[in-house]
């Protein structure tokens, strides 16, 4: 296993307004693999994701990327290393090209049209979209542009938060195939929050089950077919929402 792209949680806690959101989370997201995060709403999944790229800071414990504590990595460096795509796929006003240029502009750099076209190709979008207004894109196209924009910094780690939940079945399958291809082609370490348990099973190499801010069970995604923990069985049976 490549050590440099692993993310290790060591007794990580996060508290907000005296309310524990995450409680002593310990575990490792394996490098170059897709780990799906599942659990009921309010389990702390999005909070955990935000801790991975410094949008939030742990109240206690440590998060290590490779061998380096996240607390010692400057935020701009961290966010270049750990990309994030969200359910809403927010776009700035302007063209697809304007959106793809954004990560470079934030670091006083430029993205050529030729480079931008390569990123569109990576996410299976036609070159004709480059100068189209982002507001005119379909939901699936927006999500692909959002992923392409995240890839501009060539992050070895990619965080995905419910990126297919607002898409129809066909568009969701296309995004799943895309993410699997990106993982295979570039060896990107991917952590993917999903409420779709079927998706978690067939897309993920590994799965973490979170309930009430705790990591209940982790292992190969096949655990969703044969869970060991009672709480996981309850969740999968629909007993925990």
Per-chain topology:
Blueprint: E1 7-16, E2 19-29, E3 34-38, H1 45-52, E4 60-65, E5 68-69, H2 75-81, E6 82-86, H3 96-105, H4 113-122, H5 139-151, E7 157-161, H6 169-186, E8 189-193, H7 197-203, E9 206-211, E10 214-220, H8 230-236
Parallel strand pairs: 3-8, 3-9, 6-7, 7-8
Antiparallel strand pairs: 1-2, 1-4, 4-5, 9-10
Features:
241 residues, alpha/beta, Rossmann fold, six-stranded mixed sheet, four-stranded antiparallel sheet
Query: Over all CA atoms, what is the radius of gyration?
Result: 18 Å
Helix proportion range: 25-40%
Shape: globular
Quaternary organisation:
single chain
Strand order of the largest sheet: 6-7-8-3-9-10
CATH superfamily of the domain at 7-89 and 156-237: P-loop containing nucleotide triphosphate hydrolases
Strand tally, please? 10
At CATH level 2, the architecture of the domain at 7-89 and 156-237 is 3-Layer(aba) Sandwich
Per DSSP, the total helix count is 8
Low-confidence stretches: none
Beta fraction of the residues? Answer: 25-35%
Pfam family, one: ABC_tran
Protein name: Phosphate ABC transporter ATP-binding protein
Domain ABC transporter: 7-237
GO molecular function: ATP binding; ATP hydrolysis activity
Describe this structure in words.
The protein has 241 residues and is of the alpha/beta class. The chain has a domain at 7-89 and 156-237: Rossmann fold (3-Layer(aba) Sandwich), CATH 3.40.50.300. It contains eight helices and ten strands. Strands 6-7-8-3-9-10 form a six-stranded mixed β-sheet, sandwiched between helices.
